Amino acid sequence: MSATDVWVGVDAGKSSHHAVAIDAGGKKLWTAKVTNGQQQIEELINRAAKTVAKTGGQVRWAVDLVSPAASLLLTLLLTTGQKVVYVPGRVVNGMAGVFRGEGKTDAKDARIIADTARMRGDLTELSPTDELVVELTRLTAYRADVMADWVRGVNRLRDLLSGIFPALERSFDFSTRSALILVSGYCTPAEAFGRCSPVRTGGIGPNHRLWSNSSEEIRCGRSNASNTAGSANTTLRATRPPVMVRTCSVCRRCPPPGSGA
């Protein structure tokens, strides 16, 4: 390893990045804050190249993020042939106690990232990512986000239903779409007992384009709703309009039973 090498640690952010350059002895050469833009990042790369141009050393970059916020930075570094290593955030937090000063700043984090890369040779070196991997990563991230929204909506529905109709909340399996459709139309004891008839729920399947077994699931749910409603003779304040909203947020595309949609 050449004594003329320069390590540049970058504390990446969404709107801007903070970079600190150090030499082989750990002495800080310069520090810079750049906007997360192509021109500014290219100027940062050129500045680092000029630092080692006279000595013939190499610039070694270190970043603490590989998320979309650092995509432009990593793309420009890798496409220009720079050597980049990844310093995980937990390593940065662990090394923070070694350096003087208790305050946490971007400049301090960038210095820690550069020093960690200088002292450790076991860090992962980054390489250009295959386009197919990038697309699959975006698709899986989108699916994870959709599923998180679904789970959050179901949990919110169950929490509301527990304060309105606890017996129905216990009797339904909310991992199925059929239960959500039924609850979107019959979510109070009065509705479940007074409106949850075989004629009304029998037409749910075709109107909502369900699978063949969903109609049977809804009929079973209707039976559960009727049985549990019979034991509820107390009107809760939360079941009175406009407090109770009869639309299930995770199943808005399914109109309430009997709406004729």
Task: Explain this structure.
By secondary structure, the protein is α/β, with parallel strands linked by helices. The chain folds into two domains: 6-128, ATPase, nucleotide binding domain (Nucleotidyltransferase, domain 5, 2-Layer Sandwich), CATH 3.30.420; 133-239, no CATH class. The protein is 48% helix and 12% strand. It has helices at residues 38-51, 71-79, 89-95, 106-119, 131-162, 166-171, 177-185, 189-194, 198-202, 204-208, 212-229, and strands at 6-11, 16-22, 28-35, 59-63, 83-86, 124-125. The chain has a six-stranded mixed β-sheet. Strand 2 and strand 3 (28-35) form a beta hairpin. Helix 1 (38-51) packs across helix 2 (71-79) and helix 7 (177-185) crosses helix 11. It starts with 5 loop residues before the first strand and ends in a 32-residue tail after the last helix. The model is unreliable at 195-213 and 240-261 (pLDDT under 50).
Total number of distinct structural domains? 2
Mind summarizing the main beta sheet? 6 strands, mixed
What is the C-level CATH assignment of the largest domain?
Answer: Alpha Beta
The coarse silhouette is: elongated
Counting helices, strands and paired strands, the structural category is: alpha/beta
- Low-pLDDT stretches are 195-213, 240-261
Keywords for this structure?
261 residues; alpha/beta; 2 domains; 6-stranded mixed sheet; 6 strands
Question: What is the element layout, followed by pairings?
Answer:
Layout (H helix, E strand, L loop, with lengths): L5 E6 L4 E7 L5 E8 L2 H14 L7 E5 L7 H9 L3 E4 L2 H7 L10 H14 L4 E2 L5 H32 L3 H6 L5 H9 L3 H6 L3 H5 L1 H5 L3 H18 L32
Parallel strand pairs: 1-4, 4-5
Antiparallel strand pairs: 1-2, 2-3, 5-6
Helix pairs in contact: 1-2, 7-11
